[in-house]
Design brief:
The complex is a heterodimer of chains A (395) and B (397).
Chain A: H1 2-8, H2 11-33, E1 40-46, E2 48-52, E3 55-64, E4 67-70, E5 76-81, E6 88-89, E7 94-98, H3 103-150, H4 156-203, E8 205-207, E9 212-217, E10 224-225, E11 232-235, E12 240-247, E13 259-264, E14 267-279, E15 289-296, E16 308-314, E17 318-325, E18 330-332, E19 335-342, E20 345-350, E21 352-356, E22 360-365, E23 372-377, E24 387-389
Parallel strand pairs in A: 1-24
Antiparallel strand pairs in A: 1-23, 2-17, 3-12, 3-16, 4-11, 5-7, 5-10, 6-9, 7-8, 9-11, 12-15, 13-14, 13-16, 14-15, 17-22, 18-19, 19-20, 21-22
Helix pairs in contact in A: 3-4
Chain B: H1 4-11, H2 13-51, E1 55-58, H3 64-67, E2 72-73, H4 76-81, E3 86-101, E4 104-113, E5 126-127, E6 136-140, E7 150-153, E8 156-164, E9 175-179, H5 180-188, H6 192-204, H7 216-225, E10 229-230, E11 232-237, H8 243-254, E12 257-260, H9 261-272, H10 274-304, H11 307-315, H12 320-349, H13 361-387, H14 393-396
Parallel strand pairs in B: 4-9, 6-8
Antiparallel strand pairs in B: 1-11, 1-12, 2-10, 3-4, 3-11, 5-8, 6-9, 7-8
Classes of the chains: A alpha+beta (395), B alpha+beta (397).
Chain lengths: 395, 397
């Protein structure tokens, strides 16, 4: 028997036992770490105090605060366009001219009409002088005959006749006066007509309403343009801003004057300073976005209208607030909260959150400073699930 | 009394262990195939579990956003939120596409969702959730992306801010979550050349670009390049609300098709991956049968290889029961070793598969029982053969 026992602990059996033990150990390790029975790996973090500087993000396009479309007030054919896209123009500068067609001839006609009216007025005035003279003669004759009648040298019939002549001359004088006044009116009318034609001629030259830059030249000489159609578009380069669209759900605390960073698509890594200049009253009902106009502060040298820009608005933050990483926010049965590892098992704790930044979120109530919470988990957590702290993404 | 089986095994230890190992690898392959099948079914369901929506609202008479294209207006959710029992509604857009990172492109399923509403990733393994309204992404770890990486989708660059795990489409493509508005744009945006060509075509169309009618052309162009469609609206219901009733109400009065979570699972599992799953399933059955047959043959031949020893045993008067017990024990032992090796191997290599392999404990249990039963049946055959051996063969040599 003794010999057999010795033979049992030979090299082969030793290797066998070690191999068996190793296999069992590896099997148990594999099941415990990789298999379905393994606890869920989690990464934890502590509730800490931090300053939160939340921001709201929106995208928009560079637009002019006021865009000017310069065009004719009535249909016409373009004669000349003096400026091109990118030209700087002064207020009042002539930008383009519309072909006047027959307007010059109409002006000449109006001028002739005015001259004719003046001559007609002079004739009427002369007629007034003549009528006046006749009246005075008739009055003198009447006075003479009345004197003679009182001394009974003439018959009463003669006096009546002279009286009639005097009244007729008076009436002729009044008619001559009225004619003269009408001729004067005619002068005013003809003058006004001439001025109207002049105004029309003035309106055919398109003048710049501002000192700014031509952003578009939309019609070329020879084109027939209708009333209201833009020939040139102008903008004031000092008054460009980004018309940004911000999700309504995050727009609550945006105020005029808040600072902002603007990143142009052409230079996404350069943050240009800006500030909220206006929050438009009319939001976009379809896309559910509020429209916030963010002015450059200061305005960069070269801006391109219509360029896409990303805007980050800096909202008022909180200082020294209890915070957790925003990746820790969980939702369970319509309640927000965090998961905690209690005795190796996952447990959901409802928490009320406040101000949120990209990385961290304020804890209003539900957690104390220093408490440990689960931030990352290898699987979707459920209450009572076994968890174990481990590094999830090693790189 | 000496354990005959033990003695015999120790005697032929090397060949016994190697036989067990070979058997184990075979069982491991079978287990893995079962895992591939389960993984396929799980892939189909994982998204449903993650978004945790009670009702899926899709285009009328379509099979949802995955099995069939579906498009619904993106303001439909307002009407749905007004229904009694609806707690949350979220628009989602799904599109499978190639995204490129660092010069390499790979196939992913891009999911557009609204942060804070149903449809987003349920948990993260690194980084943070999407905080901005545009150009941020949360990627499945399987994409190989890392927090801070930049991927290009159509004409925009997206920064990966968070990573999640086990978020795949029903095809097993890893998912990339981006804000809904970006996904809508990516889904309907044409390439720049096409846009410019379309503008030219519209401008040349006299019906649209008529002289004297300003603004018509611009309006038509704007309509053509903007999209207010999403693929589905996900609803979460208040507690105690019957999802079926809500779905029926939506189908009847809103004139959209609504699926409950069970319907959706049915569509994904029974319709979308039905053929592929059946293919794998049939293969699994054949593999299991072949494995069982091979196990049986191995045990049978192993016993037949011992004819001489058994004849000697018989010659020295060993009882039939003892011989039968020896063969049975050896067979079961082989089965146990094989199962353990197989389970070990399957667990070890399962994570290396490009698609998810789900090894279920229940499957392992069934495989264990099946192995033992097959071993026992095979040993019965071997025992019958062993008992018919003539003791004289021991001398006959």
């Amino acid at each position: 028997m003794k010999r057999r026992a010795v033979s049992f602990i030979n090299r082969r059996n030793l290797f066998l036992a070690i191999g068996l033990l190793a296999f069992v150990a590896a099997f148990v390790w594999l099941l415990a770490t990789r298999g379905p029975l393994a606890p869920v790996g989690v990464e934890q973090a502590a509730v800490t105090r931090a300053d939160l500087h939340p921001g709201v993000y929106g995208i928009g396009t560079v637009e002019a605060q006021h865009a000017y479309s310069v065009g004719p007030i009535q249909a016409g054919r373009l004669l000349r366009v003096m400026v091109d896209q990118g030209d700087r123009v002064e207020a009042g500068q002539v930008l383009a001219e519309i072909d006047p067609v027959d307007l010059r001839q109409r002006a000449d006609a109006a001028m002739s009409a005015a001259a004719r009216a003046r001559q007609a007025a002079a004739a009427a005035q002369a007629q007034v002088g003549e009528a006046d003279s006749r009246t005075r003669l008739a009055q003198a004759n009447l006075a003479r005959y009345q004197a003679l009648y009182r001394q009974n040298f003439v018959a009463r019939e003669m006096v009546d006749s002279r009286m009639h002549e005097a009244a007729a001359a008076d009436a002729a004088l009044a008619a001559a006066h009225a004619n003269a006044a009408a001729a004067q009116r005619e002068i005013g009318r003809a003058d006004a007509e001439r001025q109207g034609v002049d105004q029309l001629r003035n309106s055919l030259t398109l003048l710049s309403p501002i000192t700014g830059v031509v952003t578009a030249r939309e019609a070329e000489p020879g084109t027939t343009v209708v009333a209201g159609q833009a020939v040139l578009r102008l903008a004031d380069p000092a008054r460009l801003w980004v018309r940004a669209r911000v999700d309504q759900a995050r727009a609550q605390t945006i105020r005029v004057g808040q600072a902002a960073d603007i990143a142009m698509r052409s230079a996404p890594d350069v943050a240009l300073p800006g500030k909220v200049a206006r929050i438009e009253l009319q939001s976009d009902a379809v896309t559910e976005e509020r429209i916030v106009d963010v002015a450059f502060d200061p305005v960069p040298d070269r801006l391109y209208l219509g360029e896409l820009a990303e805007v980050t608005l800096h909202l008022p933050g909180t200082r020294n607030a209890l915070t957790v990483p925003s990746a820790a926010i969980g939702l369970r049965n319509d309640r927000t909260g965090v998961w905690q590892a209690v005795d190796g098992r996952a447990r959901f704790k409802p928490v009320q959150f406040g101000v949120q930044t990209a990385d961290r979120v304020q804890v209003v109530s539900g957690l104390a400073e220093g408490e440990r919470i689960i931030v990352y988990s290898a699987r979707q957590l459920d209450a009572g699930m076994r968890v174990r702290e481990q590094q999830l993404m090693a790189r | 009394m000496i354990n005959l089986a033990g003695r015999d095994i120790v005697h032929h230890l090397k060949s016994y262990l190697l036989t067990g190992l070979g058997l184990g690898l075979l069982i491991g392959v079978t287990l893995t195939m079962a895992g591939v099948y389960r993984g396929m079914v799980d892939d189909a369901k994982v998204l449903l579990r993650a978004v945790d929506a009670d009702v899926w609202v899709v285009q009328q008479d379509t099979l949802g956003p995955f099995a069939e294209p579906s498009s619904v207006p993106d303001d439909l959710y307002r009407a749905l939120l007004g229904l009694p029992g609806v707690a949350q509604a979220g628009n989602v857009a799904y599109l499978t596409m190639q995204v490129s990172h660092a010069g390499q492109s790979q196939r992913v399923m891009v999911a557009g969702f609204e942060p804070g509403k149903p449809g987003g990733p349920a948990f993260l393994v690194a980084g943070r959730p999407i905080a901005r309204a545009h150009y941020e992404a949360v990627a499945d770890a399987r994409t190989g992306l890392w927090v801070g990486d930049v991927v290009r989708i159509r004409r925009n660059d997206y920064t990966v801010v968070g990573l999640t795990r086990r978020m795949v489409s029903s095809n097993g493509d890893p998912m990339l979550f981006i804000p809904l508005k970006d996904a809508q744009e990516a889904q309907f945006l044409k390439d720049n050349d096409a846009i410019v060509e379309d503008r030219r075509r519209l401008a040349a169309n006299p019906a649209i670009n008529r002289p004297g009618q300003l603004g018509v052309l611009e309006a038509v162009q704007t309509i053509q390049t903007s999209s207010h469609k999403v693929n589905a609206v996900l609803l979460r219901l208040q507690h105690g609300t019957d999802a079926r009733a809500v779905a029926n109400t939506i189908a009847r009065w809103q004139r959209f098709t609504a699926y409950t979570r069970d319907d959706m699972e049915e569509i994904l599992v029974a319709k979308l991956i039905a053929t592929a799953a059946k293919q794998i399933g049939l293969f699994l059955v054949i593999l299991a049968v072949v494995s069982a047959a091979i196990v049986a043959f191995i045990i049978y031949t192993m016993t037949l290889g011992k004819i001489k020893e058994i004849a000697v045993l018989k010659l020295i008067g060993t009882k039939n029961r003892t011989i039968a017990a020896m063969i049975m024990q050896e067979a079961l032992g082989l089965g146990i070793i094989g199962f353990l090796v197989g389970k070990f191997a399957a667990t070890l290599w399962a994570p290396a598969f490009p698609k998810y392999v789900l090894l279920e404990t229940g499957d392992a249990g069934r495989a264990f029982v099946l192995t033992l039963v097959v071993c026992a049946l095979a040993s019965v055959l071997a025992i019958r053969a062993a008992l018919r051996i003539d003791p004289a063969e021991a001398i006959g040599g």
